[in-house]
Every structure is written in structure tokens, then in C-alpha cells.
What we know:
Oligomer: heterodimer
Largest sheet of chain B: 5 strands, mixed
Helix content of chain B: 40-55%
Largest interface: A-B, 40 and 56 residues
Number of helices of chain A: 8
CATH topology of the largest domain in chain A: Glutaredoxin
Distance between the termini of chain B: 89 Å
Shape of chain B: globular
Shape of chain A: elongated
Mean pLDDT of chain A: 88
Strand content of chain B: 5-15%
Order of helices and strands of chain A: HHHHHEHHEEEH
Amino acid sequence: MPVTLNRASQIKEIPATDPRLAKVNLAIKQYQRRQDALIQILHTAQDLYGYLPLNIIQHVARELKIPPSRVYGVVTFYHFFSLKPKGEHMVVVCTGTACHVKGAGKLLDEIAKGFNIKVGQTTPDGKIGLEQARCIGACGLAPAVIIDNEVLAKVDSAKIVDMIKTKVGAA
Amino acid sequence: MNIQTLNEIKARVQARKSGLKHQVCVCAGAGCISSGALSVLEAAKKQVKDLGMDKEIEIIPVGCMGACNQGPLVKVDPTDTVYQKVGPERVPMLVERHLQNGSLVDDMLLFSEPGKPAPSKKAGELAFNAKQQKSVLSGCGTINPEDIEEYIAAEGYFALHKCLTQMSPEEVIGEVKHSNIRGRGGAGFPTGIKWEMVYKYVSNEKYVICNGDEGDPGAFMDRSVLEGDPHRILEGMAIAGYAVGASRGFIYVRAEYPLAIKRLEIAIKQARKAGLLGAKIFDTEFSFDIEIRIGAGAFVCGEETALIASVEGKRGTPRPRPPYPAQSGVYGKPTLLNNVETFANVPLILLKGGEWFSSIGTPKSTGTKVFALAGKIANTGLIEVPLGITLREIIFEIGGGIPGGKAFKAVQTGGPSGGCIPAQCLDTKVDYESLAAVGSIMGSGGMIVMDETSCMVSIARYFMEFCVDESCGKCIPCRVGTKQMHNLLSKICEGKGTLQDLALLEELAPYVKENSLCALGGSAPNPLLTTLRYFRDEYIAHIVEKRCPAGECKIAKPAASLGAH
């Protein structure tokens, strides 16, 4: 995922007084600045910010005494970490084998058509983001979709667009 | 903690349970939670309390009961009655009729259909359960996973006590070897031999890792065990730590399993408080503690050397072996790495003996195995069967066959590393050797059933796309080979393939298989090779006749056939 490395604007975006930074620092402390806890600390940061801002990556690198390039390498290696802000509401379509066999592709097509977004994109107003998951382990409920951490079971592709609209409207 | 306390807890919990009029278990597995099980649990608890019956009726959340697509499931004991699709709105009726008046609600029984009664009133007698043998899953669906006392009441931590106080590490390893258990992660390496290897390396520090990076799409066995019976894993790991001489353990869990992480955190906290993890367990010299490591979404981290890199906080890329992790694993120290289900078997083996374990299954594949049934099958969900059972028994007796009057086409085992097994091989026994003989693997336990409407070329492409995405990029055969195979498969799916493309695929597949660095690339061609072996006619139909026999692929009619002269 190419991102513009505009450091100045990134640092401005999240000031050091941001209360979330204190929580990142707490996690770093709890793990005693151990370099092997890098992934766990990045999880904490992403939970707080919704993604991993570049200056946070630099901050974590500095605190753990790991080259920023290596932290960046870890962030880009794992699917779970994101360098871009996510949508206000996240729609995750499971594309595991069971869901695939039961029509996950159709669900993705319908959502793409209904909201004019592709996987990995967010609607222009930043409201809805679309992602796919490799398997959420809810194979008995295939095809499954997660909307804002709530798992919807046996989703009908004809109804998915309306379901998302209702959920997002209600939230 | 000592044996008296363990016995006291066990006696106390059992006495409390035997004094109950009913025990109500509400399935709080991830599947049932997404169908609304938690509000069912709350509604039932509130109503029973309002009726003043909360002394005689205990309502607890439990782990996965198996029949996930019928959820939320509620089990009422002592009558062994399981109700299906219990929404919060049906709770009042259920409480009134069964718990207050003692009459079963026939039309809500498991596997009942509208207007038709259930095949059996007792859950244990249903075809879904009759051929199953639950040992790893014995606590899943019967005990509250967030209560250590319930695990202790079900003989939990007694095996650890027996090992620490009555057995030497050599004897523990001997028992595991005698059981002949093989790794449940898929490759089937004998567990006892692995333990012995780690035991023999001399080091001031050793580690035990539990591989809970259940990455195969279509598999949720480990998730269910972690969520439904987390203490069993902790106990298994502690026994392994004692046997190989390790004092620290890691459980590597996928970030996609937040409930499993939460229940493990609770379990570890409870075990530490009870003195079953930490320093001087059972007042012996043995100390052992466990830390959770959350993965971050990389399939390759299921490979042991990649997983170790990830535990160390690095990019999860594999490295060449040897040295094997048994010699040089986490931080270069000897490391024992086993799958969740393997560890879950350990307390049982030590409690009941290796002899007991090896009496189940076949001589070369002993014990039971948990499978996740999914896809085009009537009863999707979690099952545990003795090894050596046939695929036909699993799919048609336990699984209830193919819904909608469609015909069975293939069953996919082993995820992206496995293969598609066709109808003519349905009588294949489910054991490590027999599955390998038909071109697939045991794998971690996902079984996805496909019917006549599933296109085999498209499935091969699906798995290849998965491998392209998940290839870590370190070695060329995997990084480039999977991409090229995916391109060729896409061409065939779109009706643009030629017979030369097919020949090229057949040349490329064995090359990638033999030359990749780790098992990801080494097994990536398997779905392609098995579908080519059993469903070659479908490939030919796509290439020569430009049609998809299953009607799944969108193939545009070639312009020439429109007759536009």
C-alpha cells in the first residue's frame, strides 16, 4: 500500500499531547520495551487510532530502539495493520472457503455496486469502509459479514446493501 | 494449590450440580453468539431469577456444541435435551414449559423441522452425535469456559498434578510416545518424538509454543477449543513444559479470534491465581508461565519457523530447516511447537494412559480428530470422530448429506495445502496415510463439501489466489510460481485458456512443489493437482468447449460463434 511520506503533516495530525499517546506509552512500559513485543504494541496503537499513523510508527521504533524501517516492514507484512484511516463503519466480508462456496463473491459484487467502493476502499464521505477477511472461523454460518464487529450470519446477497444502510443509519 | 484443594473443588462443584433440578447450558461459541446467544443467556437468567428458581436451576454459558447452523443452541440437563434456534423471544416459553413444568418443547428440539418432530428427543441419540466420540471436545459445550472450578470438576489439572508429583519427564514423554499421537496441525509428525528431541537438547532456557494461528480458510476447530475449554490447553502446555524442561510458554492466537483471546486471558489469570501457573506449581520445583501472542493476519505464520519469527516480533518469514525449532527456536533456544488440538489431547493421554489413547483409531493414526464441517452440507459445525472413520460416514451420516437434492461432487480437506477428494473416493478412511494416498492431506481439520454447482477449476483458482496473497515472497518458486499458476487458472476460468496452458500448469506445479522453501509453497499446488487428477474433464470443458459444467464461471461466448458474417 503506497503512502505519501509527508512526515511534517503526519506529525501535525497527531500531537504529542494526544491522550492516546499516553496509552501507547503505557503498553510500551508494560512490555518493558522488549523488542519482541513490537507486534503486540502495534496492536494496541491500532486499537487506539484505528490505523497506524507514521509518526506513531516512528515513536514506537524510537522507544523500542528498533530501526523505523524494520517496524515499517513489520507493519506492511501483516494484513491486520493498516497505514490508512479506516471508514467510520467497517464492513468485512468473509471470503474463507465455506463463504466462498456459498457466495461471498456475490456479496462483494453487490456491496461494490451499492456503494461504489472496492475492497480496501472507503466511501468518499468516510462513512463506510469495505474489507475482506480470509476466514473468520464462522464457517457454519456462511456466508458471513461483519459490520462494526457484529457478525451477520447466512447473509442474502439481495439484501446486503439494505442491511448495511440500516446498520449504519442506526449506529 | 495441592491435591486436597483440587479434590475439594471437584467435590464442591459436583455436589452443587447434583443438587440442581436443571442445568441449562447456553452455547456461547462464536457462531451462536452471532446468532444472539448472549441475549438468550441474559433473558433466561433474568426470568429464572424472577421466578425465584435460581437456586435449583443453574444457567451457564458454554463452548461450541457443534451444530453451529442451528444456533443459538440451548441444552437442558439432566434430560440431555438440546433446543435449536432459541431466540430471546422464545425463552419465556422454554422456561415455562420445560424448566417449570418439565415437558419438552418438541418443535424446538435439535434437528426438528416445522411440522415434523425431531429424529430423537435425546441429543446423544441423534445421527449427528451417534458416530462422534468426544474427548478433546468433552469440555466444549458442557463446562463454563470462564470458570476454572468447572474445569477442575471435570478432572482438570489432575493430569498436571500426576505428572509433577508421580512421574519423571522421561516417563511423561514415554507415555506420549506410547499413545502414538501425531501432530494435529496437519503434517502428522509423532508428538512424542518431537518432545524427546527438545528434551535432549541441553540449554539454560527452553520454550513451549502453542500454534493457534488457525489460518486455513474453512477451519474453526482450534478456535472452538480455545473458546470452549481454554484451561485444557494451558494444562497441556504446562505438562509439555515439564516434560521438555521449559519454564515459559507462548500461545500464538490469530487476531481474528477476539473471543478466544479474551477467554485465554481470563483462564491464564485464574490459573495463576490458583497457583496452577507461575512459580513452584503444586509445591514442586517446576515453574511455568504462559504469555499470549496475538498474530496479525499472515497465513504463513502457521509454518513453525515463520511463527517463531512472529513471536519474536519480526516479519513472519520462514527460514530453511535444519536447524529445527527443537534445536534452535525462539531466541535461538530449543523450542517445542505443537498445535492447539495436540496440546488439548495431552491431559487426557496422561490421565487415562497412552494405551487407552492408542486403542482409539487405526494403528498408525491413533486417537480422535476434530473436524469443521462446512460448505454444501446439511449439518455444518464442529465434530470429533475416531480416526479411521470413512469420509462417507462423516458427510452422509454425521453431516446429513447434501441439502436441496443436489449431488455430492467433492470434499476439500487440508485447506490451501490440501486437495479435493471426489465421490469415487468417499470410502477412503480418514487417517494420515489414506488421505495422502488420494492426493490430499489430513490438514488441521477443515472439511468443505462441494456439490454439483461448484466449479472445480474455480476452486483451484480460489486457493491459488489465496496462496499468491499469502506467499511471504522470500523464495522465488512460491512468490513467482503461485502468481503464474494463478494467471493460467484465471485464463482457463474466463474461457481464454488453451491446452498449452494446461500443459504449462502441469509442468509448473511439481516445480513449485519441490523447490519452495516452506510448506506454503510446497503444498500450494495441491488443490490444482488433485482437481486436475479427478476433474480433468472440467478443465477440458473450459478450454475446448468454452463452457463451465457447474455454471459458476462467467465465460463469454466467443465472437465467432455469433455468426456475424
